[in-house]
Amino acid sequence: MEHRARSRSSRLAVPAAAxxxxxxxxxxxxxxxxxxxxxxxxLRDPYFPKAGNGGYQVEHYALDLDxxxxxxxxxGRAVITARAEQGLxxxxxxxxxxxxxxxxxxxxxxxxxxAGNELTVRPAEDLKKGEVFRxxxxxxGRPKTFTDPDGSKEGWITTPVGAGSAGGAGGExxxxxxxxxxxxxxxxxxxxxxxxxxxYDITLTVPDGYxxxxxxxxxxxxxxxxxxxxxxxxSPEPMASYLATAVIGKYRVTTGRTPSGVALYNAVTxxxxxxxxxxxxxxxEMVEWGSGRFGPYPFGTAGxxxxxxxxxxxxxxxxxxxxxxGAPGTEExxxxxxxxxxxxxxxxxESWKDMWLNEGFATYAEWxxxxxxxxxxxQEEFAAFLEGDTEVDENADSDWDAFPPAAPPGPxxxxxxxVYYRGAMVLHRVRQEVGDEKFFALLRGWAAEHxxxxxxxxxxxxxAEKTTGHDLKDVWDVWLxxxxxxxxxxxx
Length: 492
Ligand code: TRP
Ligand code: ZN
Fold this sequence. Notes:
This protein has helices spanning about 1-15, 15-30, 275-280, 285-295, 330-340, 355-370, 380-385, 415-435, 435-450, 455-470, 475-480; strands at about 35-40, 55-70, 75-85, 90-95, 100-105, 110, 110-115, 120, 130-140, 145, 155-160, 175-180, 200-205, 210-215, 215-225, 230-240, 245-250, 250-255, 265-270, 300-305, 325, 345-350, 455. It is of the alpha+beta class. It folds into 2 domains: about 55-340, Sandwich (Immunoglobulin-like), CATH 2.60.40.1730; about 345-480, Neutral Protease, domain 2, CATH 1.10.390. The chain is globular. The structure holds tryptophan (TRP) and zinc ion.
């Protein structure tokens, strides 16, 4: 990595005597035991270079978040269990805003420093390569909403209490924490890049009468004293931090099970209950349908959270429990967020450049769903985009061809239309080339090959060619990487 190269060349530039003196000094400082060096402050993601940190991988986050809706006050404790990938004299966590009250590493007080969104932690003693260590960060304050390069809001967002809810108006509010691509750093310290996935236990303590919802399964709901209740949520499968969520407010909760036994948990803001019921009723069937098309559902739980309308400008595929800003208006939207559980959440992007592996696949899943239900077919969707036929898809006329899906021009483009629609068209072109049988085997194989892992665009193109036995170079050149408006493929 960059850091290694830099330290090597700087050492070469230091005269031998000075180097020896420096080394002696370093040895003295560390007691002559371990030779750690700082972990990188970013992973050099092509779009968000400071997101994430080098030198360690997180295995588990235990987040205890105590939230007071009146005043938007959060008190947090994060216990982060990680494995050192190098000797570490210091390492970074990403954290935006909030106040750090104390940091310990291996149970010992650690020094720390804040600069921008970087929290640098210096343990009392260096960490050894391969060592599994626990860092505990106590923090507090009013978490902030974060504005992305494309202008969308994420991070911590306060929500009104709906008129039809039990809480009534005035002062009382709820909140939602979301994090695509980098907003999770506004509500917990971590290694906030999708390449570092970990298990989570998130406990939310809120005033009695509030619901608190997070990823995975609700393990317990216990009185916490002083008129408060603690909701303990458990997510054993690896999760990228941008998929973590915390939802606090007055919600109507319903639980159930899919026919094959996946536990369901829906939380719906009362004002949207009537409008959501019809679409949400399809969720069990959709989980089964997805399992048939893409392979076994990757998580132990599924569900949905319907936030007060207007809370967000988009739905988000938060792991096991996507959030919707008001009632999901269409089956396809619910299906899209469900499809991300395979594509994006289980198979996660290696970097933010690989977003089409999330959005192109989730969009194509919508096309497959409509193809097998009341239409249109994927071929009709594909043709609608090429022809600008907005009767088939209202997005067909927008800037779906503004840039190649695998090469968004900048960080403001990673959720742009081409990532979704041209991304889906790449998959349709592959299907046209290899035929249905190989294509559906490819979708299932891809989900299985990288289940609970990460993958890049290059991984996908190589995998598709290897498993189908087709040379797909022209598809990649024109549809995935090509800057020009793609021409309709020749009839075959
Ligand atoms: N990833 C979300 C989805 O497709 C949508 C989304 C999240 C989004 N953040 C965004 C769209 C910012 C536009 C801008 O389900
Ligand atoms: Zn999506």
